[in-house]
Amino acid sequence: MLKKFIPDQYVQSVYDIETEELRKRGVKGIITDLDNTLVEWDRKDATEKLLTWFERLREEGFEVVIVSNNNEKRVHTFASPHGLTFIHSAKKPFSKAFKAACRLMNLKHSEVVVLGDQLLTDILGGNRAGFQTILVVPVAETDGILTKFNRAIERRVFKAMKRKGLIEWERE
Ligand SMILES: [Mg+2]
């Protein structure tokens, strides 16, 4: 059971992801979470740095879809001005939205990596749906109210994984 919570990779931020490494693993598409993965959960707009990152991914030939559990207003306001493809109200960890994103990119599950800052939604959902997964340290130390609840469970999962020697790192 715990294994489904273990990401294939763990990075400090999305900017630390080596696209060359992704390519070697056969990755052609990226499904990314929004809140606390790309920007702080309470930041309305994308940062310049993030837009540059998206542009680079596009130039390198990667497909990208934002898949967020947040509502249409939040995700639309963030993504639409920059022409970013998105699915809102995704109900992660359920796999429906992940699969829909995969179809939008016209890629196989094995060609897609899921990025996110939460074990209980992004990583569990991505693993269960058969994608590669990358866990990102949350951009902000604060969370929305629902996420706070998930974090409490997440801390217990991290501790259990560490105890079993499944991971070397631990999150506060
Ligand atoms: Mg998140």
From TrEMBL:
| Cofactors, names only | Mg(2+)
Q: Name one GO biological process term.
A: N-acetylneuraminate biosynthetic process
Q: Which GO terms describe its molecular function?
A: N-acylneuraminate-9-phosphatase activity; phosphatidylglycerophosphatase activity
Q: Where is the signal peptide?
A: none
Q: Organism's domain of life?
A: Bacteria
What the entry lists under Pfam families is as follows: PGP_phosphatase
Q: Which UniProt keywords apply?
A: Hydrolase, Magnesium
Matching CDD domains: HAD_BsYqeG-like
Q: Can you name this protein?
A: YqeG family HAD IIIA-type phosphatase
Q: What is the originating organism of this protein?
A: Alkalicoccus halolimnae
